[in-house]
Amino acid sequence: MYVCLCKGITDSQIRKAVSEGAANLQDVSNRLGVASQCGQCACVAREVISEARAGQAPGLFYAAG
User: Fold this and answer.
1) At what angle do helices 25-32 and 42-54 cross, to 10 degrees?
2) Which of 5, 24, 44, 62 is buried most, with the most CB atoms less than 10 Å from its CB?
3) What is residue 9's three-state secondary structure?
4) For residues 13-47, b (16+ Cβ closer than 10 Å) or e, as one string?
5) Which long-range contacts (CB under 8 A, 24 or more apart) does 29-34 make?
6) What CA–CA distance (Å, rounded) separates 64 from 31?
7) For position 59, what pLDDT does the model report?
């Protein structure tokens, strides 16, 4: 799934960056450029990073308003 449309970055790329040592959004941004343009992806990127660090199964779920 695309997380950052500006840079074309997927959740898989973010998970890979975390598996290679990225610990937070700043690390992932430095490696991939996520959240470095419009910033709309930062919240979802943080969720993916947290899931990857916790070793949870992939997938994001959102509560309906």
Assistant:
1) 110
2) 44
3) strand
4) bbbebbeeebeebeebbebbebbeeeeebbebbbb
5) 32/4, 32/7, 33/4, 33/7, 33/9, 34/3, 34/4, 34/7, 34/9
6) 32
7) 57
Q: CA-CA distance, 7 to 54, in Å (whole number)?
A: 25
Cα separation of 22 and 30, whole Å? 9
Domains defined along the chain, listed by start: 2-54 (1.10.10.1100)
